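debug: dumping io for the single-chain case to check the tokenizer round-trip. Nothing else runs in this session.
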Amino acid sequence: MFSQLKDSIIGNLKNSWGWKTRRKIVVFSVDDYGNVRVNSKAARANMDAAGMKIYSRFDLLDTLETKADLAALYKVLDSVKDKNGKPAVFTPFALPCNIDFERLVAENYQQYRYELLPETYKKLANLQPNAYEGTWELWKDGIAKGFLRPQFHGREHINLTIFNEKLKNKDAALRIALENRSFTSIDDEAYPTMFSTAAFDFWNFDENKAYAAVIEEGLEKFAAVYGYRSNYFTPPVFNIHHSLYPILKENGIQYIDLGLVRNEHQGLNVFKKEFNYTGKKTKEGLTIVVRNVVFEPTEDRGIDWVAYTIKQIERAFRWNRPAIISSHRVNFCGHMDANNREKGLTSLKALLDAIVRRWPEVEFMAADELGDLISKR
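debug: decoded output
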């Protein structure tokens, strides 16, 4: 009873302030595409044998999207059409860069090195052809056909302070992960204000100076990889300090996806609360967007995810808000377990069918399309 009341209060708060429209708009904002986490079943087995912990479903199931993952996803997205005859679309918040494992080995694990996503796919096509041969071509096809409209999620999904410190200290778990072409099951308990996958987390405020260059370079690499400059940004784990907003704005970002209530780290374990809503402007001129619907169909919370998500969409539309659905790639990954992909996509199909049946006037939009609509108010 308490959890239902809490969910209702939070759900209404997400929709109480901000930009309004009577149009029935649905956006899927899906994090973590383009990111290498677990390499393969064999890699996970090796890490398990070495005693590396599985902290979450991401450590167990989250892999760089395969050809089968994308093909199955496109089929589901194309199975429904909105009032304009447009299929459902994912906005993958995506990374253009991953760890260059070969260079790390060649340099005896001295410091972090990265490579561009197409190079990662090229290598994986040689190492795991059944899963990855032709995947990058399918990625580009999905963009061209309007199933995917990727936006910026950082240069890489890695906190480089933690990575390089562990590398310097010859951390055994990190070395095992890297030897298995993975970045997962990394213990970050020694870093009270940082997550190993949160690219812009820090301890000392001055660490943000280095992040400005990472953002600028990351946006350049994003354009090189995906074929256009991103104008929309979601930081990994939603964490970023506002002192980095100017570099985002200067490099073409217009929209930033943030949490409703954010504890922004100020340095040395001091935090400041911030309240956000869709349409709020930062002083730099960035438009903030807040996701108001959650859809994580392979996360075991003991709920019917389709019914739960439809209820959230109902609430958004009742408040005359667009339904901005938050999800993660892990829900649609089948490289580690085909049943995981089947469960996620079956739920997605059921959700899409329910949406177009309940709201035939629905409009599917990419996140940047919604951003442009908000900016025209």
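debug: round-trip ok. The chain has 15 helices and 13 strands.
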